[in-house]
Write a structure and sequence with these properties.
The chain folds into 2 domains: 133 residues, D-Maltodextrin-Binding Protein, domain 2, CATH 3.40.190.10; 157 residues, Periplasmic binding protein-like II (D-Maltodextrin-Binding Protein, domain 2, 3-Layer(aba) Sandwich). Strands 1, 2, 3, 4, 5, 6, 7, 8, 9, 10 and 11 form an 11-stranded mixed β-sheet that branches. The chain has 11 helices and 11 strands. The protein is globular and about 65 Å long. Helix content is 44%, strand content 18%. Helix 3 packs parallel to helix 4, helix 5 crosses helix 6 and helix 6 packs across helix 11. The N and C termini lie far apart (108 Å). By secondary structure, the protein is an alpha/beta fold.
Length: 347
């Protein structure tokens, strides 16, 4: 009796249930609450201190957009920025960086000597691994009250100089070669000219910091009358109305060159295509134009005309003029600054 009462109902409900189940089965993968989120790809990138702004605000987003347009995949960057010597030490100690942009080739050599990367592996990259350049300049207080116009003026009594620390900062090593080289090239017939200028400047160093960025902070907090630093940082803040200083271009100074290394031991086979694409992007014209926009000088000289802020240097020189970094480190940083200048100053 009960079955006869329910029979018409069951004849209608069962087909509808089956149809609903089939429809739900077909639609299930497309329902929002059933979709699995695909984790973005990642790149672990370490860089020296002043790179933070250009990489995080310009280079990373530009590559993320390009990669997504090409593949539909999202990319996230895990990054860290500190003094070049500091990040080199961290990589030697085992942090899982896949790429590192170092202030100077000397730190790439340290990674090679520690067995982290193959010897001279960066030479296989475009421009022998050099991504961009920037000359070393002098920052002074607004109005230049001490009348500082060149490195020689930093040797005068009563001038306080802020300087990054060569033990942790790649910028400090560049600055030492800039100071020595300016003296040596100004008076090439006098063997002690470079030493004398270096000694005179370091006699007036009143504060040191672990990185170029930290030295800049010290200067902005009121230490000293002058800061020896990268042109890039000064131009970047000047363009944004944040520079509380004036830029002085020495007659003779060095153009620093910044070296990219690939830490192959940390790159899984599945990462290879992504890492290679980002490396190639760094030397592409769009990326190089972004570096120029942020105050770096491109490795492609014709692109540098896009930034009229770049100052003129009468006698720019390169590390190769001193035999490259291994020789400059041995002869200038160790042999003259450390063994002679610091001993003379009893530091």
């Amino acid at each position: 009796m009960k079955y006869s009462i329910l029979a018409p109902y069951l004849r209608n409900v069962i087909p509808l249930t089956l149809l609903s189940s089939l429809a739900l089965y077909a639609l299930w993968p497309w329902l929002p609450f059933t979709r699995q989120t695909i984790a973005p790809r990642t790149i672990v990138f370490y860089g020296f201190s002043i790179l933070g702004s250009v990489m995080e605000q310009a280079i990373f987003p530009a590559f993320q957009s390009q990669w997504c347009a090409q593949t539909g995949e999202q990319v996230e960057f895990i990054s860290s920025f500190a003094g070049s010597g500091t990040i080199t030490n961290q990589i030697i100690m085992g942090v899982p960086a896949e790429l590192a942009l170092l202030s100077l080739e000397l730190d790439a050599l340290r990674l090679s000597e520690a067995g982290v990367i193959d010897a001279n592996s960066w030479y296989a990259l475009p421009q022998r691994g050099v991504i961009n350049r920037t000359p070393f300049v002098i920052l002074v207080r607004p109005g230049n009250p001490k009348g500082i116009h060149d490195f020689i003026d930093l040797t005068r009594p009563g001038i306080g100089v802020v300087h990054p620390d060569p033990l942790t900062s790649g910028g400090a090593n560049w600055a030492i070669v800039a100071e020595y080289g300016a003296g040596a090239r100004a008076d090439p017939d006098r063997p002690e000219a470079g030493y004398d200028l270096l000694l005179g400047i370091w006699r007036n160093v009143v504060a040191q910091a672990a990185s170029a960025r930290s030295a800049r902070t010290q200067f902005e907090n009121g230490f000293g009358d002058a800061l020896i630093t990268y042109e890039q940082e000064a131009l970047y803040d000047q363009a944004r109305g944040r520079l509380q200083a004036e830029i002085i271009y020495p007659q003779r100074t060095i153009l620093s060159e910044h070296t990219l290394v690939i830490i192959e031991r940390h790159i899984a086979p599945a990462q290879r295509e992504l890492i290679d694409a980002f490396v190639q992007f760094l030397w592409s014209e769009p990326a190089q134009r972004l570096f120029v926009e942020y105050g770096y000088r491109s490795v492609y000289e014709e692109l540098n005309r896009a930034n009229p802020q770049f100052g003129t240097i009468g006698d720019p020189f390169m590390i190769d003029d001193f035999g490259g970094w291994p020789q400059a480190k041995r002869d200038i940083v160790e042999g003259i600054w450390k063994d002679r200048v610091l001993q003379e100053l009893e530091r």
